[in-house]
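Page 47, continued from p. 46.
Same chain as before, 446 aa.
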Amino acid sequence: MHDLVIVGAGTAALSAAMPVRKAGWKVLVVDFRPFGGTCALRGCDPKKMLVTGAETVDLALRMRGNGIAGDTRIDWPELMAFKHRYTDPIPASTEDYLKENGIETLHGRAHFTAPHAMQINGETIEAKHFLLAAGAEPVKLGIPGEEHLVTSEEFLNLERMPRRLVLVGGGYIAAEFSHIAARAGSSVTVLQRGERMLPHFDPDLVDLLMEKFRAAGIDVRLKTTVEAVEKRRDGVFSVRASSRGETVRFEADLVVHAAGRGPDLEALNLGAANVALKDGKLALNDFLQSESNPRVYAAGDTARKGPALTPVSAYDGEIVAENLLHGNRRKPDYTAVPSVAFSVPPIAAVGLGEAEARKNAHRFRTSYKRVPDWYTARRVAETVYGFKVLVEENTDRILGAHLVGPHADEVINLFALALRKAMTAEDLRTATFAYPTAGSDVPSML
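Result:
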């Protein structure tokens, strides 16, 4: 019998496996996919490598007439090869790392057959504890022709960029992929059923970012709900949608599912293990443990207790390992987890937004400004640069920070640290930063 069976081989799984194994536990990691997880193989890391191509083209275009001459374009096969040089070695190196540390590995689909047992490739494996860290998958849209949509994973492995691309959804994936594809020469349309793109980010800064969508030629259709996708005999896809009471159609050579992801639970046969669900998610206590089967824990996207971000997955894995080894004594704290959408330029946020701060009855002041004239923007000829920072009136504590523009993905980490450590606006205003850097703008934002 194993002490711990972990379903999944990504960030959360590895973060939990190592400390438990070091404590002498017998650990098995199982995954039906290549080892390494979503972030490293089919998410964050390869995506940002492709974003680098989009950023480079955009920078060259902005600097034309400012000392840079000639045309710069994306060679898609070469950019994809660049990505593969990073991702291809990961599965073998991940599995080797686990084995070198005495952790067993197995490839295959795992499903429960009893509260204490799973079946993998026809073999029954019993364990004292289980960790479900199987990640997420695209949510079901429930529309005719849904099978014609490709996933983000398939987009990240395209051999060539299609001439016309439609993205269904308006969140992180749509924002990022649309900027990559547009700068790779594709005609891009985003169909978002909501009132705006990127609903998890500050509305004013999203509005500012939309200038870059328009400049890149990305056609964003808001309040547009996709109802069906048809593949014609000539291979072209026809996307039917409703928009403001009217039926509209779009033609595309590729249609991408960008409408969100949910925990990958269906194949686990949770009923056999008495693992309860609540509102479609695992019913977990404050220690990331199943409320109905104490043998079972969950982490990362499978748990969905915190934001669906890679650092949260790693953090959850550490929490679970500690609770397994020492009894339930540590609860996750998701305070001040920063998030970034890697559009061009990126948009970032940490802490409370204005609406949430008002809902929580905070008294706060807001520092909000669009600053394309600041050096950070002018140095790279970027017209989109802005910020919004919320500061509590009576304590001077920073409640939330929202950025869009050059290096927003890095500067947001300074605000995240300030929130996590309950620093005041005065603490940051009086700090000395290296200059000229984007971080040196922080005092002026306050």
